[in-house]
Design brief:
Blueprint: H1 2-23, E1 24-27, E2 31-37, E3 40-46, E4 49-52, E5 58-64, E6 68-78, E7 84-95, H2 98-103, H3 108-126, H4 129-134, H5 136-151, E8 156-167, H6 170-212, H7 215-229, H8 242-251, E9 258-263, E10 266-272, H9 279-296
Antiparallel strand pairs: 1-4, 2-3, 2-5, 6-7, 7-8, 9-10
């Protein structure tokens, strides 16, 4: 009797152990347990930790509550301004209602993926190329609203949507590069013209100062000579401005006499001879007069013809 009793107790313990092994479940911290009893959903969602179910009668389904990062395949479409582009994006979402994620939709991951692709193509068709390239934040918000509205009925919340890349045709890339180059050239020309305008104003002010102080022109000429000589050139060509000669004429005291140059038969009154120029100036005037005489020649009047015909 005792032996039979012990065997019965051992069998009961073994059955209890098998039952406990079949009924025991562990739900992780990032999961929630949804229980179905004979195919019907139980209202209670099992929280993380150790839990028990009725074997054979109940089934426990674990739902991951972490944020899921799902890449959206690149979608090709035509923008509102008739440009063909390829756009890919990424969607961040998570399950907020484990029961709806299992009951309301067959596969919530696949549903979110397909809805993301269709919504992305719709956004491409409603947007311009400039918006896709520079105004992505607004497009991301619009795409998030399009996804979040139906996803809430599936127990899924869209956390964030980001457009990753926009691929353009090669012809469009070259056109945009030429446009950017032309814009940079335009800005460079405007800046150069503005600099020329400012420089011209400063040069006009400098010319006014030099006109009031003639010695400034000579000082500027000497500075130019020093700047050119610093380059260690073997040949230096330095033009002498007429203003410098005029300055020398004004600086030198004028004399009472004037020189006269004879061209042909009529004398030509020359300008007052600055003593600072001296003989070189007179010699230059004489050479100029001789050159004019050689070119024009002597003035000869035709002699009257005598009629030899007998009367």
């Amino acid at each position: 009797m005792i032996q039979e009793l012990l065997m019965a107790v051992a069998g009961a313990c073994a059955a209890a152990a098998v039952y406990a092994g079949a009924a025991a479940r562990v739900v992780k911290q990032y999961e929630r347990g949804v229980v179905f009893r004979f195919g019907r959903l139980r209202d209670e969602v099992r929280s993380p930790g150790f839990t028990m179910i009725v074997p054979i009668a109940e089934r426990l389904h674990k739902v991951n509550m972490q944020i899921v990062t799902m890449p959206v395949p690149a979608q090709e479409g035509i923008t509102r301004d008739n440009v063909t582009v390829r756009v890919d994006a990424v969607v961040y979402f998570k399950v907020v209602d484990a029961a709806d994620a299992l009951v309301a939709v067959e596969d919530y991951r696949f549903a979110v993926s397909q809805m993301s692709q269709t919504s992305l193509r719709s956004i491409i068709g409603k947007s311009d190329l400039d918006d896709l390239l520079s105004n992505r934040e607004k497009l991301n918000q619009g795409l998030e609203l399009m996804l979040d509205s139906p996803a809430m009925g599936w127990g899924v919340a869209i956390d964030r949507v980001e457009i990753k890349d926009v691929s353009l045709p090669e012809t469009m890339k070259r056109s945009m590069a030429r446009q950017a180059e032309a814009d940079r050239e335009r800005r460079a020309r405007v800046i150069n013209a503005d600099a020329e305008l400012q420089a011209s104003k400063k040069l006009a002010e400098a010319a006014g100062v030099m006109s009031a102080q003639p010695a400034a022109l000579q000082l500027r000429l000497l500075q130019t000579v020093m700047a050119v000589s610093a380059e260690k050139n073997s040949t230096l060509v330095l033009p002498i401005p007429v203003e410098l000669l005029r300055f020398l004429e004004r600086a030198a005291p004028t004399t009472a006499g004037t020189a006269a140059v004879t061209t042909g038969t009529e004398p030509v009154a020359a300008e007052p001879v600055p003593p600072i120029l001296g003989d070189a100036y007179l010699k230059g005037l004489g050479d100029a007069a001789e050159a004019v005489e050689d070119l024009t020649g002597a003035s000869v009047e035709p002699s009257p013809q005598v009629d030899d015909t007998p009367a």
